[in-house]
Write a structure and sequence with these properties.
13 strands, alpha/beta, single chain, five-stranded parallel beta sheet, two-stranded parallel ribbon
């Protein structure tokens, strides 16, 4: 494999280890829903990604969770850790339209959404769709565009449509935005608006590969597996397949006490003394939908508290803001999420 496409470590590896999923009496019974169809498609996507990517099993699982939960993903990491490559490969495993945008400071909203062009022969304007009209949209370095361009994404990310000259244009189904950003370089970048961050289901921190994974990358490159081997990956899931899988995920069983658990976790972010901005109800919905998808990927037709705990950092880290005092102490949003998880009683 090309050395410019290293594997990332487990995005949750920076998190404190969670308790292993408890075995309940429900586990001993056959699932109420047949998840074999979903498992086959998920395994097929993982197998295709594994043709190019070394490691990153946890990252691949979380991207699949977002795909099944109909959510957008923000990938954050230093250059060269395969953020863009992983997003492109995931898109290639789906038989759906794909587009890529490189955000820059001079990018205008019309460069994203499209523009109306006057046709003198017909005496009327004709709308020409922009690159946002695709099922999987990869936005590279999303934080390099100014607020005016960022605002073009508000409606389309939430409502899956745009409004141009008073006319609404719907996005194709499915519609997923995969965005990348570099957390280190600050020159020529803009802070993403909170309203936009809230529209991302997950924020995934993509780290460096392990020594063993980097050795495997070097061995593959030395053996001649260089370049950009995107052609090695084929589409294994259609738009219709994905829609059926999403419907199955929506029907996942969730105990009422787990709904209360999610509400208490998210509600605690609004009362925590180390935060001046807590998470919105959209975070609760994201945690619920993500937990359903994660449970399905792991072969269960019901959600467990461990599914919620595992996803909480990815769902909440970009939706909460630390107080200046907590930042000066060296705290991080993930530290606060860990503390909240320890404070809230786990339903059993």
């Amino acid at each position: 494999m090309d050395s410019s496409f290293p594997s990332a470590t487990d995005p949750a590896s920076s998190q404190p280890p969670l308790a292993p999923e408890a075995t309940t009496a429900t586990d001993s019974f056959a699932p109420r829903t047949d998840l074999s169809h979903l498992s086959r498609h998920a395994d097929a996507i993982r197998q295709e990604l594994g043709k190019v990517i070394v490691g990153q099993q946890a990252l691949a699982e979380l991207l699949l969770v977002a795909l099944l939960a109909d959510g957008h993903v923000l990938l954050e990491g230093v250059p060269g850790v395969a953020k863009t490559l992983t997003a492109k490969l995931l898109a290639r495993t789906l038989s759906v339209p794909f587009s890529r945008l490189q955000f820059t400071p001079d990018l205008m909203p019309s460069d994203v959404l499209g523009t109306s062009v006057f046709r003198p022969q017909q005496g009327e304007f004709e709308f020409r769709p922009g690159p946002i009209f695709a099922s999987v949209v990869l936005i590279d370095e999303i934080n390099r565009a100014p607020a005016k361009t960022q605002s073009a994404l508000f409606e389309v990310m939430e409502e899956r449509q745009i409004t141009q000259d008073g006319t609404r244009y719907a996005m194709p189904a499915p519609f997923v935005v995969l965005a990348t950003q570099n957390p280190v370089e600050q020159e020529g970048t803009y802070r993403l608006p909170e309203a936009q961050l809230d529209r991302f289901l997950f924020k995934l921190n993509v780290g460096y590969p392990t020594v063993e994974e980097e050795i495997a990358i070097l061995q593959g490159h030395h053996a001649g597996f260089g370049g950009t081997p995107l052609d090695a990956v084929r589409a294994v899931v259609s738009a219709e397949d994905l829609q059926r899988l999403r419907e199955q995920v929506r029907r996942q069983h969730v105990e009422p006490k787990l709904l209360e658990y999610i509400a208490r976790l998210v509600g605690q972010t609004r009362a925590h003394k180390g935060l001046y901005l807590g998470a919105s109800p959209r975070a609760s919905l994201a945690l619920l939908n993500g937990a359903k998808a994660l449970a399905a990927l792991r072969g269960r037709d019901f959600v467990t508290p461990e599914n919620i705990q595992y996803l909480a950092p990815m769902v909440l880290r970009h939706r909460i803001q630390l107080t200046p005092e907590r930042e000066m102490e060296g705290g991080t949003p993930d530290d606060v999420v860990k503390q909240i998880l320890q404070q809230i009683e786990v339903p059993r």
